[in-house]
Design goal:
Length: 370
């Protein structure tokens, strides 16, 4: 989906969410004031915050869609993460306010009175929130929009909260039980939990999170479809907003390939990957020994030594330079490994015992996408 279409669709979905939430705010506010119910009024405030969140989503999406400029050559896509953080702070503020009001209601309970009509309005609100939540989640997955997906999850939580409010109202109408303050505290906890989760996720995106595993696997499979490429390694992707990636990768090719041949391959691969995935790649080279029996024997020994360390996940980029007696390769270590540098020193020492005349250049790679 083109960037302009994605932005327009997110804005359209957000407008629909605003419309539904404002209708819910109106009806719940009427019920809340008429019945003197703090939980219904808090539910209305929660719907109002959801409408405001959709407004912020629209603003953020439009800003994120701005073209790159001299100060921001990678575009403005990360604005979406900033606006999501603002939404999280608003949700947390609403949760704290709700908690304060609910605590006061427990200390000084008031009389609430409901009618069958008010219960019907609350039930319709639950159904509307379930529909809105499913709709937002579906569109969020289609458009790769974290903001819409999070809004959908939040709406489904709201449906649970609204259902609890409905149950409390029904119990008050039938049995006269006063659960307003207690239910308000529970609603506040749900709101605070949602705010913390949204803030945590958006901060993680701003800091930099691991690339999506499904995407990295598809990219590597696509790279290895070219007959000249024997393997794809060290894939690193940097996100500058949803669906805006820059990255680098090493590909293994035969050591007798000419620079002219690799240049032609590189241009073809970069264009194809960008057309299919929207990822702009910079490609580096690992040369593979094509016809050297000693290189094959050393490579086999290296694999045997690396296999002794369960947290060394992979060995790649092997090359043996007969003239300089230099062996080069990379190892990928699991983040759970303690003191990986010490492991590499031990690995180098063990290989040196097996091949005293050789020097070993071992590069330590983090587990970015393996």
């Amino acid at each position: 989906m083109k960037k302009q279409n994605r932005t327009a669709e997110i804005v359209k979905v957000s407008y629909r969410g605003i419309g539904v939430n404002l209708v819910l705010v109106l009806f719940k506010a009427v019920v809340g004031f008429a019945s003197h119910s703090i939980s219904v009024l808090l539910d209305a405030v929660n719907n109002l915050s959801d409408a405001l969140s959709s407004v912020i989503t629209i603003i953020g999406t439009k800003l994120a869609g701005k073209a790159p400029d001299k100060k921001h050559p990678y575009g403005h896509g990360r604005v979406e993460y900033v606006t999501a953080s603002v939404i999280a702070i608003l949700v947390l503020f609403a949760g704290l306010t709700a908690l304060k009001e609910s605590a006061e209601k427990i200390i000084h309970p008031g009389a609430a009175s409901y009618t069958a009509v008010s219960l019907l309005i609350l039930a319709a609100g639950v159904a509307a929130k379930v529909f809105l939540g499913k709709y937002f989640q579906k569109k969020g997955r289609m458009l790769n929009s974290d903001s819409l997906t999070a809004s959908g999850t939040d709406a489904l939580f709201d449906a649970v909260i609204s259902f609890a409010t409905l149950v409390a109202a029904a119990l008050n109408l039938i049995f006269g039980w006063k659960l307003e303050g207690i239910l308000g505290v529970l609603i506040s906890v749900f709101i605070l939990k949602a705010g913390v989760e949204i803030l945590r996720d958006t901060i993680s995106h701003i800091i930099g999170v691991r690339a999506d595993e499904a995407l990295t696997k598809k990219l590597k499979r696509a790279l290895c479809q070219y007959p000249e490429i024997r393997g794809a390694y060290d894939l690193m992707l940097h996100s500058y907003g949803p669906e805006r990636y820059f990255g680098s990768v090493h590909v293994e090719v035969a050591d007798d390939m000419t620079m002219r041949e690799f240049d032609a391959l590189n241009r073809e691969v970069v264009a194809d990957i960008y057309a299919e995935f929207g990822v702009l790649l910079t490609i580096g080279i690992y040369a593979a020994n094509t016809s050297h029996s000693r290189a094959r024997r050393i490579k086999k020994a290296v694999r045997e030594e690396v296999a002794k360390y369960p947290l060394l996940m992979q060995m790649h980029g092997f090359y043996y330079d007969e003239k300089r007696k230099l062996v080069s390769f990379d190892v990928v270590y699991d983040f759970r490994m303690e003191k990986p540098d010490d492991v590499v020193k031990k690995l180098r020492a063990d290989l040196k015992k097996r091949f005293p005349r050789c020097r070993f250049n071992i590069n330590l790679d983090s587990d970015f996408s393996e």
